[in-house]
Every structure is written in C-alpha cells, then in structure tokens.
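Tokens for chain A. Residues wanted.
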C-alpha cells in the first residue's frame, strides 16, 4: 500500500526484502512478523519461473500467516521508473551533499540519494 493505492495484490510463493535488521526472505504460512523496511528492492516469486521486483522506499512489512502487507510512501515497478530523471536527481543530490554542512539537510539528501540509486538499479531489471 502506498498513498496512491495498492501496487500489487497477488498470490506469491516467496518474498525477499531488506529490513533495518538485514536481508530477509519469507515463505507463505509463516509465523507473524512486523519489520521496518529499508529503502531497497522487494522481490517476490509468483511461480516457478516468474518473479517481480519493486523499488520500495522504506516502510513497514506485516506478515501474518499467508498475507503480507507493506505500507510505504512509494513502491515502483522497473517499467514505471524514468531512469534519466532518477539519474539527474541522483547527481543533483550528490552535488548538494558535497557542499551542504547542515546536518538535517544532509540526512534528507542521503535519503534522496538512496531512493534514486534504488530507482536506477531497479530499472536495470526491466
């Protein structure tokens, strides 16, 4: 779920994600977990040879039995990413970070860099 609505609602066999504690993977019908997600890809295995990847911009993952819910500010499919815009935004943020001394602004820029780097990397999986 994102502010724009539900991005994926499907049956999957396996999901792989990065929490703040580290990389994790989960099969269906497992014990409940709630984890805070990093800005990182979420990969889901839909069937034997079918996978999907999403660029997830942090958030919370809740797994209860056979249902997984991710609440995030943004989740993007590779084909929905404007790679050139992401590269330009990445370069601008990196340049601003080099000259900024304000601690709060640096944290925001580092987050912007992570999100755009994720977009660029995920777009290669089209």
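Reply:
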């Amino acid at each position: 779920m994102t502010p724009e609505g539900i991005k994926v609602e499907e049956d999957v066999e396996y999901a792989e994600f990065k929490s703040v504690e580290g990389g994790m993977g989960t099969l269906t019908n497992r014990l409940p977990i709630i984890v805070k997600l990093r800005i990182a890809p979420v990969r889901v295995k839909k069937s034997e040879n079918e996978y999907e990847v999403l660029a997830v911009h942090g958030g919370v993952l809740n797994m209860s039995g056979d249902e997984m819910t991710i609440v995030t500010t943004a989740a993007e499919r590779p084909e929905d990413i404007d790679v050139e815009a992401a590269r330009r935004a990445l370069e601008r943020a990196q340049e601003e970070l080099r000259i900024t001394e304000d601690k709060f602004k640096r944290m925001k820029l580092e987050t912007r860099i992570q999100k755009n780097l994720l977009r660029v990397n995920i777009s290669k999986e089209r």
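Helices lie at 83-99, 103-123. Strands lie at 14-19, 22-27, 30-47, 50-65, 67-71, 75-76.
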